[in-house]
Write a structure and sequence with these properties.
- By secondary structure, this protein is of the alpha+beta class.
- The chain has a single domain (2-93), classed as Alpha-Beta Plaits.
- It contains 3 helices and 4 strands; from the N terminus they run E-H-E-E-H-H-E.
- A 4-stranded antiparallel sheet has the order 2-3-1-4.
- A hairpin with a 6-residue loop joins strand 2 and strand 3.
Length: 108
């Protein structure tokens, strides 16, 4: 499993239109082979900044299968006009030894 992280900064005043465009664009990416899930988070301190997390079966599913497809053109046409700058995209994988999320201990 591969996690794509995209930091997206949109033009001020376009949040509602960007979010609506992403909701429509979700169909394009969701039909792509290897797509697993998508989550979008909006910045609190900087509301024009979004964190997009997309899970893929493999890295190639994203960088070859999706990015070289017609679906990517449709995706970009729906959300690209709102970008202030190109998204910063990186990929992650689970390390061989995973760390489980556990509650932090309270004050001593």
């Amino acid at each position: 499993m591969v996690l794509e992280q995209a930091l997206i900064t949109i033009r001020p005043g376009t949040a509602e239109a960007f979010e609506a465009g992403l909701a429509r664009a979700r169909e394009a990416i969701g039909a792509s082979p290897g797509f697993v899930s998508l989550r979008l988070h909006r910045g609190i301190e900087t509301p024009e900044r979004y964190l997009l997390l997309v899970e893929w079966e493999t890295l190639d599913d994203h960088v070859v299968g999706f990015r070289e497809s017609d679906a990517f053109g449709a995706w970009r046409a729906l959300i690209g006009p709102f970008f202030e700058s190109p998204p910063d995209v990186v990929h992650f994988e689970l390390p061989p030894v995973t760390v489980q999320d556990r509650p932090l201990a309270g004050p001593a």
